[in-house]
Amino acid sequence: MAEVSRPILTLKSTEDGLGTLGDRTLELGVFDVLLPCRRFDIDHKVAVLGRVSLTTEFLLRLIKSADGISEEQAAAFFGFDQRDMAFVVSEAANLGYIERRDGRLWLTIEGSALFREGSSQPEIFEVEKRRLTVGFDLLSLSPQAPRFLEQFELRLPELEIVDQGLAANATESIPEAFRRNYLEVGGRDRSGATKRALYSIDEVTPETRFSSPVRIVLKSAASAPAVGEPGLDEWRPDYERDDRQAIVQAVALFVDSLKTSRRPDDQVAYDLLIQFAPEFLKDFTRRDGLATERYYREAVGRTGDLRSDRPTVPLVGSLFTRDNLKRVFEALSYGIKAGNFVPSCAIWTVPNVAHWGATRVLPDVLQQFRRQLAGDEGRSVSCYSMHNGRPGFHLTKAFDHSYVAERAAFPPPLEILLVPGIFAAVSVNVPVGLSVGHPVPLGLVTYDREVLARVAAFVSQKISAFGPDAAHLESSLAGREAALPIGTDTRGETS
Fold it and tell me: CA 349, CA 153: separation in Å to the nearest integer?
């Protein structure tokens, strides 16, 4: 029988696609948004578990099991004489828990009520009036503890209140929310010695509003980077979010608002990336510009740490993510050790993407820049932002000064973080793989002197667009490292 030849199965090449990245998770960005909340004064009553003397408790338990027992039998059971027995019976009778009839002992209605169904142990409660001031968010009416917010935090974007009626009439819904969450907000005694049960809610008085930050880590599958999903693990664990679905939905709406569309002039930003680092990107440069998806795929698979022999590494995702911040401060450290430049400022050109820098990470990063760049001499170091349009309110509180261009100075998706002569991070904030989606910052981090020179020269060329107040930045950008024009390689040849 002739052997039948079988076709050879091969995998379709995905060199120009993203399918080879598998199920890796990519962090696109970090955001902090404000959750609208309000304090409420809640007047209520609680039933507090008390105790009777041990002998009275055992007497009640005896009568419970043998109602109508004679006093003589009870005394014989405990081994009491007539005087001791009279004292114990008198205490229980004065409390209204037992009664004497014809020399026998009986539980009263109040005494019987001390025993819960299935329990042989009496529980005695006292009702007390109390007032608690409790914070609730206005989306899910779940408890939220207030905390002090800095001026930067107060200007972060706020989550949208989808159910305006619930927020407007929160006072009417707070009793049920308080009852549902009583064990969390008021039912636990610090010593653990007292057990409380909510008896009644008498009055609810609305007080001042406040905001509470919610940390969102925007994540996506590496094979579909422009399709972001919110991660809330840094805010609350899963089991706490189950009762806060209204907040989860508001976060989803916020994340959806971060999407953007690709533009014909996005290529200008990618071309600048090539001009800044032509040697580093030569394997990903085509006649029509940067092979974006191929470089993205390489960057995701080849991200690594900077070294003395590796001054430039790829960058994927926002600079505010944990891994990218590590690379930024590695570059800062290497650049400072090189000692080729005395820094006086950090300059951040802000891309035109929604809610850029809306995270508490930003002021922390800038403060760390100031400390590390000040050195042992305690130099004065300023942090500046540069914008094509009006900056967000939160950014004016993070930077020492924000400069606004009188005309568009930078390509809208281009982001540059530059400490002249020390390090630079350059990225293009454009959806990768889709025409509409979440921007995927793609670029590089470097302390390479030639690359820094080109980046500094480019920023210097744009200073005039920001008016005379920004002119002093040119002196910070000037120097031997900034002498090479854009498009010139280290041999002086035009690329």
Answer: 21
